[in-house]
Structures are given as C-alpha cells and as structure tokens.
C-alpha cells in the first residue's frame, strides 16, 4: 500500500456510512439509560457512536484511562462549540507563551472547512500531510478491520470504527504521541453516546448554548437535548455552561446533580477586549466568556500558581482566527460574508450579523446589491425549515436581499457531491413566502453560484453576498475566494 496522505484520506472516506439506519440497534444497557421523557424522546438509530471506542483504543495501544494524561477540556453544545474550543486553545496558548505552560496544545474539532487535517491541531496548526499519514497508518496497522470495506451489518468490533470514530481515535493517538499538555476536544453531535465521550476523566467540561438540532438522534425537546449534552459531565471535573433556556437549564442542573458535580453558569467576562472584531457578533462574547472560564478552571487545576491575566485573555482573543465563522472577505467590488451556520439558531444569528456588518461596510454614495448564496442538503435536518428561519430573520432585519442563489455542494461541474436537485426545487416557494420580490436562481456548483453573485456588480457599485447554510458550501467558497487572492 502507498502510505501517503492521499491514501490515508481515501481510507477515512471509505469509513463513511452510505445511509443512516432506520432502526435502533442500541445495546440494552444504553436503551435502558435513555431519559424517560413524555415527549420528544431520542430515537437512537444504529449503534451509538461510543460503542467500541474503548476497545479500539486498546487495540491501538491506549487505555481509556490513559486519556487522562491529556488533561482534557471537553466541550458539547448546539451553537458555538468550535468557537469556544478554539478561543480556549488560543487563550491557553497566550498564557503558555508568557509562562511556559502549557507549552503544547492539542485541539480537536469537527467538521473541517477545507481540508480534513484541520480537525486535529497542535499549537493551533493543522497536522501537516506527512505527520497525518504517519500517525494514521500507525492506527491502520493496529486495526485490521480497516482493511475490509465498512459493513454496518456486522457486529461493532468486527466492522471497526466509522469515519468520525476513526477521526476521534486518530486525534487521541496524535495528542498522546505528541505529548500535548492540554487537549481541547469538541463532541461531534451529542454527548452521552458521542464517540468522544470515551473520555473518563476530563479536567473541565463545558456546555455551550443549547437549541433544537439533530432531533432524530437527540430528541425534539430542549430537555432531551440537554440530557444528551450533559452526558460529558464527570465527577471530579469542573462543569461550566452559559445562560440557557429555562427547560435546558433545569435539565443540565438535574444531570449535574445526578453525576455529583457542581454546575457553574458563566456570565459575560469583562476581561474580553471591548472592540475586538473577533468578538462580533455578540454571541462570540458568550463563547469567549465560556472559553475564559474553561481556561481559568483548567489552570487552577494544573498550574494554580500561574493565574490567567487580562493580558492573556486579550492576546488570546487578538490572535484568534476561525475561518468560515463570521468571516468577511473583500475583493474588488465584492464583499463576501461567510458563516457556516447550519441549524435554525445559527442561521438567525448569521442573518443578524450580516445585516449589521453589511450595513457598516456600505459606502454612503454607493448603490449596493445584497445577495444570498445558500445550500443545505442533509437527511438529518429539514432544509426548508432551515431556509425559512434564515429568510424570516433576514426579512426582520430588513436586509433587503436582491438576489437569492440556491446551489448544491460540488465545487465545479463534474465534481463530487450530492446533487440535491429535489431539495433545490423546494427552496423558491419557501423563500418567496418572506421575500416575494427579487430574483431567485439555481446553480449546480459552488463556482457557478459565486459567479452569479459577482455579476450583480454589472448593475451596482458594490455587492455584499452572504454565504451560509453549510460547511460544505462555505468551505469550497472560501477556498475559491482565497485562490482568487
């Protein structure tokens, strides 16, 4: 076998499920531990992602208890997980630059925006291709299941890890081999049955803002979702969250009590720099405040004599970047506003951010066209409901979108991706409920959609385009914009 980066990615991609199971194969133990809720109870489909993780860790040479060496900060939530994790890493890295500890940070997030190795970072830098391949094939040699095609019908341990499970295993392996002083780990979707919840002894656990998402897996009520997310709480670990909806807050407090932990609600932190663009829109202050609390709690356990200073916080925020989240790219007549929001809570925030940021960027004497580029094709979410939330939020902010462009995920003609033609056909009537005027067009590739947005500059002095709905749209779009300089 050619043990290259490309081959490692090919094997990883081969571990994706082609379709999601329609029925549950959860073990009796897991089924019995599900919350007994009157409505909206979780409907587990297939085998919970945590099944097999401890055994596969053993196969690659690591025990679940060995993960405690990583001094983990474990983060779950609906909105802002990635930002909170990366803010935490950046603040601790700034502290380490001043004091010498932590000298090396590990960060695991998902999904990636442009390239897969973005998911696993050392001192904020994604693994280079050589290291990625090296560590991946160390796992491959220990997991003979990877040498056969993925067969979801086989018993868990025989079929081997799926895509996200394999990525989590790889992250743990990399962090242990690289001897990081701290690992900040984002859950994939839930918490209780998430593959990352093989972590038994985190130092800090944190729950970001909760909302309705992944209802097919986590249930259709906030208390059910909170029950799942709070599954990362562990006795002996600091437990943090932000101000939540009353139902979610009650469920979090109940689970914290069941697990024997004291849950602290984090308020806005005054040490965050007041005028930092990294903290716009305001939801980023919530994420940043939780990150400061997580970093401070981690230091109090691992370096109690080296407290977090306001300067650490400031420098951590100022050096922070997270492509594809509330990002503005300017090029000629075009200003692109990119946010990879992909649930109803997130797209409403993206709409408000766009309205404010685009208004601030407009030149008083210019005729400005406002354009939307949207794509979302996902069997776990209602794409039309997502678009409806976005359309209503944009209408309520009076963003005056002139041209709505709907597209699918392939970057260029003939590229890989899902066609989504049936979904696209449903978008126009949903959009026109809230925006009856203006143009609506459909394009089969991301490049065609961007070119259509640019053509608005033929009639206007400047074009402000919001690109949102999915990482699978924002990632390729950002890549193309970067290639154009």
From TrEMBL:
Reaction catalysed? (6S)-5,6,7,8-tetrahydrofolyl-(gamma-L-Glu)(n) + L-glutamate + ATP = (6S)-5,6,7,8-tetrahydrofolyl-(gamma-L-Glu)(n+1) + ADP + phosphate + H(+)
* Record's keyword terms, sorted: ATP-binding, Cytoplasm, Ligase, Magnesium, Membrane, Metal-binding, Mitochondrion, Mitochondrion inner membrane, Nucleotide-binding, One-carbon metabolism
Domain of life of the native organism? Eukaryota
| Gene Ontology terms describing biological process | one-carbon metabolic process
- Molecular function (GO) terms listed? ATP binding; metal ion binding; tetrahydrofolylpolyglutamate synthase activity
List, alphabetically, the InterPro entries matched. Folylpolyglutamate_synth, Folylpolyglutamate_synth_CS, Folylpolyglutamate_synth_euk, Mur-like_cat_sf, Mur_ligase_C_dom_sf
Which cofactor is recorded for it? Answer: a monovalent cation
**Places the protein is found:** Cytoplasm; Mitochondrion inner membrane; Mitochondrion matrix
The record's section on Gene3D superfamilies has: Mur ligase, C-terminal domain, Mur-like, catalytic domain
Broad class of enzyme this protein falls into: ligase
Residues that, per the record, bind ATP: 325, 339
- Where does it mainly reside? cytoplasm
Protein EC: 6.3.2.17
- GO cellular component annotations of the record: cytosol; mitochondrial inner membrane; mitochondrial matrix
PANTHER family, alphabetically?
FOLYLPOLYGLUTAMATE SYNTHASE, MITOCHONDRIAL, FOLYLPOLYGLUTAMATE SYNTHASE-RELATED
Record family assignment:
Belongs to the folylpolyglutamate synthase family.
Q: Its biological function?
A: Catalyzes conversion of folates to polyglutamate derivatives allowing concentration of folate compounds in the cell and the intracellular retention of these cofactors, which are important substrates for most of the folate-dependent enzymes that are involved in one-carbon transfer reactions involved in purine, pyrimidine and amino acid synthesis.
Protein name, UniProt field: Folylpolyglutamate synthase
Q: From what organism does this protein derive?
A: Baudoinia panamericana (strain UAMH 10762)
